[in-house]
Write a structure and sequence with these properties.
about 110 residues, mainly alpha, 4 helices, about 75% helix, about 0% strand
Length: about 110
């Protein structure tokens, strides 16, 4: 509200997709499920880092919020690794990055 913005109209789709992926990952067992969590958090952390490089220095409020979000994501990834996350294969990581790129591009345009 402070930024005169609204939630994405695509949120129901994102939530349904995340639920489905979580269901599938959960069926693969804890190491792979946690590996998916760890990789997701790493990729989100990198995405938030890109936002920090583009935010104006004078927008201290947004920078603090995004920096906190980035720190939270890093902590979630460390937790997953500490709990026994398996390292995902490179093709799985690349597919996740590609899907994220599609999602962010579509969300930006709608």
């Amino acid at each position: 509200e402070e930024l005169s913005d609204r939630p994405s109209l695509l949120n129901p789709i994102w939530y349904a997709g995340a639920f489905g992926l979580g269901l599938i990952a959960g069926r693969l067992g804890d190491p792979l499920s946690l590996g998916f969590v760890a990789e997701t958090e790493r990729q989100v952390e990198a995405h938030l880092d890109s936002h920090l490089t583009r935010l104006p220095e004078r927008d201290g409020t947004s920078r603090v919020i995004v920096a906190q979000m980035k720190e939270d994501e890093a902590r979630h990834a460390r937790w997953a690794v500490d709990e026994g996350a398996a390292e995902l294969p490179a093709p799985a990581k690349a597919l996740m990055r590609a899907a994220a790129r599609v999602m962010t591009t579509v969300a930006h345009r709608i």
